[in-house]
Design brief:
The protein is an alpha+beta fold. It contains four helices and 13 strands. An eight-stranded antiparallel β-sheet has the order 9-5-6-7-11-3-2-12, with no helix packed on it. It has a three-stranded antiparallel β-sheet with strand order 4-10-8, with no helix packed on it. It has a two-stranded antiparallel sheet with strand order 1-13.
Length: about 230
């Protein structure tokens, strides 16, 4: 039981409402059919698992950029960042992370920065693993200003199943590496655009963990990675 609970706890507060809805529906289903009732129980467990908010050990070495989301790297390419951010037509290195319904969907800040812009744009709900989803799907684009003045972009992208992007940060707010900034419900994608001249430290097909996996090294040093003592 302890191992099972460790898979779903803690649960992010955004999930409480959905778990309650599933619980009420499950009680009603048990009055109709025991079989349907147990299907409802499975739904409750899945909902709790989806909204899990595990602690993460964030690398503490200066210059390390961490993954903004759990999932698999499905694309690394040169691309122009979202037009609404008004960064011009110069391509940046974009790393795309695809999240399926079984991944943790909490999004984390990839590097200590100030939120320079945070803009929402309506769009389609194409499958998030498609390249054109970056341009055509509903998204929340966030421009980060790093301590040295360089800029980095993180984009939350809705997918075929995901229809709700949550972003909890506001323009002017300062956040540290690994802090939570949002969530996308039920399948999605997160893109990160690296500053000019910074090479990715991940490969296509690699599984990544939000707040832990190293995506790039702004300092490009070979020093041993250190980790903070307490997870966040």
């Amino acid at each position: 039981m302890h191992n099972f609970l460790s898979l779903i706890l803690p649960i992010h507060p955004e999930g409480y409402r959905f778990i309650l809805i599933f619980a009420v529906a499950t009680v009603a289903l048990f009055f109709v059919s025991t079989f349907l009732g147990w299907l409802g129980v499975i739904g409750i467990v899945f909902c709790a698992y989806f909204f899990r908010d595990p602690l993460r050990y964030v690398p503490n070495q200066e210059g390390l950029v961490v993954s903004p989301a759990d999932g698999v790297v499905n694309m690394i390419t040169e691309a122009v960042p979202p037009q609404e951010l008004e960064l011009g037509e110069t391509p940046m290195t974009r790393i795309s992370i695809f999240l399926n319904v079984f991944n943790c969907h909490i999004n984390r800040v990839p590097y200590t920065a100030k939120i320079k812009k945070s803009l929402y744009r309506t769009g389609k709900f194409l499958s998030a693993d498609l390249e054109k989803a970056s341009d055509q799907n509903e998204r929340q684009s966030i421009l980060l200003e790093l301590p040295d003045g360089k800029e980095m972009v993180v984009v939350q992208i809705a997918g075929l199943v995901a229809r709700r992007i949550l972003c909890w940060v506001e323009e002017g707010e300062s956040l540290k590496t690994g802090e939570r900034f949002g969530l996308i419900r039920f399948g999605s994608r997160v893109d990160i655009y690296l500053p000019d001249g910074i090479a990715p430290k991940v490969a296509v097909g690699q599984q990544v963990l939000g707040g832990e996996t190293i995506m790039a090294d702004l300092a490009d040093t070979d020093n041993q990675i250190q980790r903070i003592a307490d997870p966040i």
